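User: Could you go from structure to sequence for me? I need the amino acid at each position, not a summary. Structure tokens:
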């Protein structure tokens, strides 16, 4: 339940003290909170006494002048006039404070807060006047406070208005600068777009020119590669002219070596270097006498030693040519073996190039399969048997397995032609 707030007037009445410091004399609130005192009781007592005196006086006059009945009318008229005069005086005494408070209220209503009700006595009318004045004082104080607050709010509003105007001006300035910056950015973008378009056109032209140059270089490289391969084949034919039994040997070895390398998924660069090395891997035999190369019987120790020098001779022949692959070293190592039993340097294991290890297996298989002056052709099975015996000892296991798989699956076979295609 909401607590009831007491009014200032009630506080004044209950405190028995007015704002000017005066007190109610002889008054105290009754049970209903309304002050009581001698005012109304005195007026009633006076009225009763006065009417009583008038009645007694009139009765006395009537008694005194009972023998003169003609005087009753004047005496009654005098009593009536005296009662009327008393009534007017009493009504004036009662209504005067109210009229004065009414005029004061009208002046207050017109805005003159300096007006106060006049206090004529300490009766109920005086209490009402004092209470009215207390209300006016409180109202004036409230109005003054509101005026001060209003001025403060007006000053604050003016300050806020000034700040808002300054902010609005700043926003307008910023928007203006932003519009100017946007225009400059648009112009810059247009300029840069035009420059980029020109640069793109120039770049496109350069790309086309570069592509034409690349096509020309590629065609030149292809011609050089074909020329190089033709040179290698010419060198191989030089050896085959001196030794008819070597006809097609180098090409067939190169073809098998390339097929093994492809099955092992070697990079294209290694396969290409292996192919060129295979075509001329025996070029060093050109230094050996033809009589030794075509001798039908067993070679002597010195003759065999002379033949074993052909890898080094071949290396010396091509080592100064700037190949993009280690062709000279592949030729030098194609007779080396994993266990160090090969020649000319007796290399072991990983010291031998991978391309040389592949070429060694292909060389052995083709040599056993083909016809030689000192024996007949033994066939492909003998060749595969030979590398199977040396698997993991003289020849690399992966190379041997890839070679056998190629022949068993029918993906490779030697062709009798001297010019054998290398890529199957």
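Assistant: Here is the amino acid at each position, in order:
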């Amino acid at each position: 339940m909401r607590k009831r707030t007491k009014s200032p007037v009630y506080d004044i009445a209950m405190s028995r003290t007015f704002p000017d410091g005066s007190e109610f004399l002889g008054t105290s609130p009754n049970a209903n909170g309304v002050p009581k005192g001698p005012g109304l009781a005195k007026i009633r007592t006076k009225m009763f006494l006065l009417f009583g005196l008038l009645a007694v006086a009139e009765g006395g006059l009537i008694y005194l002048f009972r023998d003169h009945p003609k005087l009753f009318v004047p005496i009654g008229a005098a009593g009536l006039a005296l009662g009327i005069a008393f009534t007017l005086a009493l009504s004036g005494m009662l209504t005067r404070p109210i009229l004065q408070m009414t005029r004061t209220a009208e002046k207050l209503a017109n805005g003159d807060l300096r007006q106060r009700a006049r206090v004529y006595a300490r009766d109920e009318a005086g209490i009402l006047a004092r209470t009215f004045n207390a209300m006016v004082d409180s109202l004036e104080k409230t109005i003054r406070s509101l005026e001060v607050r209003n001025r403060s709010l007006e000053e604050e509003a003016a300050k806020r208005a000034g700040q808002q105007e300054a902010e609005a001006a700043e926003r307008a300035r910023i928007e203006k600068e932003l519009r100017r910056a946007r225009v400059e950015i648009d112009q810059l973008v247009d300029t840069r777009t035009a420059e980029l378009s020109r640069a793109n056109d120039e770049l496109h032209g350069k790309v086309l020119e570069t592509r034409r140059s690349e096509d020309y270089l590629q065609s030149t490289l292809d011609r050089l590669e074909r020329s190089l391969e033709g040179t290698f084949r010419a060198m191989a034919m030089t050896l085959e002219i001196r030794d008819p039994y070597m006809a097609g040997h180098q090409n067939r070895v190169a073809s098998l070596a390339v097929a093994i390398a492809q099955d092992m998924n070697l990079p294209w660069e290694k396969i290409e270097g292996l192919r060129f090395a295979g075509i001329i891997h025996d070029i060093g035999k050109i230094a050996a006498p033809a009589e030794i190369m075509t001798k039908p019987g067993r070679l002597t120790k010195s003759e065999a030693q002379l033949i074993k020098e052909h890898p080094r001779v071949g290396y010396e022949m091509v080592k100064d040519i700037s190949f993009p692959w280690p062709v000279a070293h592949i030729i030098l190592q194609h007779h080396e073996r994993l266990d160090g039993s090969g020649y000319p340097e007796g290399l072991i294991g990983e010291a031998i190039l991978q391309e040389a290890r592949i070429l060694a297996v292909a060389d052995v298989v083709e040599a056993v399969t083909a016809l030689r002056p000192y024996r007949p052709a033994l066939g492909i099975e003998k060749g595969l048997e030979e590398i199977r015996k040396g698997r993991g000892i003289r020849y690399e296991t992966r190379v041997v397995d890839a070679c056998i798989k190629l022949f068993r699956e029918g993906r490779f076979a030697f062709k009798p032609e001297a010019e054998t295609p290398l890529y199957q």
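One structural detail worth keeping in mind: Residues 229 and 276 are 7 Å apart (CA to CA).
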